[in-house]
């Protein structure tokens, strides 16, 4: 007989981290504006309820929202929140303060509570962002990795559905890379891959997405690019890759397969599969070349 373990609720730590991570994905300006709007609502509620209902926790929420963006706006929002909190208290105070310094002390005390909360949440948001970047970055080349490329591909496919613009995906394979590793060792092979990463990063426009998928395989996304446009771009990229790796012997080459979609592919996996197939066609027919097709031809 199996003994059923009682269900346990998830701890507050992971839940808090998940909330910060979700909020951090939103634009910082939107988070700050939302925080200020929320602060206005809390101030109105605090004024309406007077001293019968405490809104102390409420004044923390705008600071939390602003801090989740990971910037410095949390300090500003903390100051505004402390001022608003003290202002509402001052406005609803029925009896005069025994000492004129009491409102000042209350203001400073509230800021001293709100600001550290914002600083801690902001630090956590930045740390989570750094961890996310590392999990999506290839450490050898500094390029996005396969996981990041799949996410970028899904984003571009969704954008393609909305705009109707074409999308070209290219698969780049380093020809002769095994010979470099066998001749000079893995350190030299790593240097070649790092050089490829530098060329890819510097040679393409800001709209292009590049990534190292693993081993000696790289990928490129060219949003809005037709087959003819992408062929021109990739041929120039091919020449730059050859120049950028000319210092190593034996020389390496690059087989590039590109497929242009005029209709959105089903998924990122489908997109990569098409480009991979065209690249291997290029390797079979003539290595160290660029081959481009449309999705209909590649299907």
Order of helices and strands: HHHHHHEHHEEHEHEH
Q: If you average the pLDDT, what whole number results?
A: 85
The end-to-end span amounts to: 54 Å
Helix content: 55-70%
- How does the helix and strand content classify structurally? alpha+beta
What amount of the residues lies in strands?
5-15%
Cα-atom Rg, whole angstroms?
Answer: 28 Å
General form: elongated
What's the main sheet like?
A: 5 strands, mixed
Number of β-strand runs:
5
Low-confidence stretches: 1-12
Q: Order of strands across the widest beta sheet?
A: 2-3-1-4-5
Output the number of helix runs.
Answer: 11
What is the structure about, briefly put?
One of its GO terms (molecular function) is diguanylate cyclase activity. The protein has 299 residues and is α+β, with helices and mostly antiparallel strands.
Report on the structure:
- The structure is a single chain.
- By secondary structure, the protein is of the alpha+beta class.
- The protein has helices spanning 12-24, 28-49, 60-68, 73-92, 101-135, 146-163, 177-184, 186-203, 227-244, 268-285, 295-298, and strands at 167-175, 209-214, 217-223, 253-261, 290-294.
- It has a five-stranded mixed β-sheet with strand order 2-3-1-4-5, with helices on both faces.
- A hairpin with a 2-residue loop joins strand 2 and strand 3.
- The two termini are 54 Å apart.
């Amino acid at each position: 007989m199996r003994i059923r373990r009682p269900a346990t609720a998830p701890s507050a730590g992971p839940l808090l981290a998940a909330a910060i991570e979700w909020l951090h994905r939103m634009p910082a300006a939107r988070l700050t504006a939302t925080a200020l709007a929320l602060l206005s609502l809390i101030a109105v509620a605090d004024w309406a309820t007077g001293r019968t209902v405490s809104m102390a926790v409420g004044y923390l929420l705008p600071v939390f929202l602003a801090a989740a963006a990971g910037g410095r706006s949390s300090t500003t929002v903390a100051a505004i929140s402390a001022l608003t909190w003290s202002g509402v208290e001052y406005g609803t105070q029925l009896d005069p303060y025994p000492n004129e310094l009491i409102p000042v002390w209350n203001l400073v005390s509230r800021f001293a509570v709100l600001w550290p909360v914002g600083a801690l949440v902001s630090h956590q948001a930045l740390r989570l962002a750094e961890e996310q970047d590392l999990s999506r970055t290839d450490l050898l080349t500094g390029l996005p990795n396969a996981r990041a490329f799949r996410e970028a591909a899904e984003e571009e496919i969704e954008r393609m559905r909305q705009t109707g613009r074409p999308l070209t995906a290219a698969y780049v394979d380093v020809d002769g890379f095994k010979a470099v590793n066998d001749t000079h060792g893995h350190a030299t092979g790593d240097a070649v891959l790092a050089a490829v990463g530098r060329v890819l990063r510097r040679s393409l426009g800001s709209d292009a997405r590049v990534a190292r998928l693993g081993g000696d395989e790289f990928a490129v996304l060219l949003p809005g690019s037709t087959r003819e446009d992408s062929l021109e771009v990739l041929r120039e990229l091919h020449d730059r890759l050859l120049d950028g790796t000319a210092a190593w012997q034996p020389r390496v080459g690059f087989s590039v397969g590109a497929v242009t979609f005029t209709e959105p592919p089903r998924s990122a996996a489908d997109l990569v599969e098409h480009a991979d197939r065209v690249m291997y066609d290029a390797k079979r027919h003539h290595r160290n070349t660029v081959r481009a097709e449309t999705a209909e031809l590649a299907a």
